[in-house]
Amino acid sequence: MLILAFPDYLPQAKRFALALGAPLQEVYLHQFPDGESLLRLPIDLPEHIIICRSLNQPNDKLIELLLCAQTARQQGVQRITLVAPYLCYMRQDIANQPGEAVSQRIIGQMLAELFDDVITVDPHLHRISRLNQAIPIDNAISLTATDEIGLFLLQHFKHAVLLGPDSESEQWVAAIAKKIGFEYSVAKKVRQGDTQVSISLADFDFRNKAVVIIDDMASTGRTLAQAAGLLLAAGAQRVYAVITHPLFCDDAETHIMQAGVQQIWSTDSISHTSACIHLDKLLAQAIKDFL
Length: 291
Ligand code: R5P
Prior knowledge:
six-stranded parallel sheet, Rossmann fold, alpha/beta, 2 domains, binds ribose-5-phosphate
């Protein structure tokens, strides 16, 4: 097998290749002035290739994945595995208004047609429980980074309270808390718009405690910022954040830090300065276990 890495995910793909003991080559990408993409693959591809790319800022990347997978098929590649630690378009799983595209289904179908296997980490599945309900192939594999995050927290804290900022985060915060024996609490959140959220904390004594907010992603940062503000107002001594997918759009990071978060840590599912929890071994083990 051969790992093919897109330039924006190259450092992570190199670690993954090392953990798997597999060769890696880079996809050549050029963006024309009008925004179109030129893509070139190595020639003489083996029967099985693993394409590595996280799908944050996804629109151009999806077109490039289409070009990549079809070009590989034309070269005779039999099996194409996509390793996309961050999977896009997973949140829109229903039409909230008549006429709205259910993008989870549409993008899921597109990925199912292009790839034999799709491996991702903690996808944001809301009303469905299995990834192959969104990507209809047998090998739609959803991993979790909760063990990696738990081990990271144990290296940094003797004790801390974990906070999930909304009901969806409970699955991750509860799993991490159980693994490392920390207490946790889950807040309630109502989203009114892209940058408007209303969070209310549960009845929990945060006074003089170090609190780590755990979430699967930070996009505008409003969730983390508001949760941090409420925790500090409730007497928390220090507030930190650990997130799986550091999307950090526009002023998100500034917003979070201004709200009083001492430090943000994240996994390397997406390249970012906070990305210090590496997923290479988790991904390599999944290839060994499932493929
Ligand atoms: C949503 O439920 C997710 O788990 C995150 O809480 C959310 O996407 C964060 O978004 P933002 O950073 O824009 O508040």
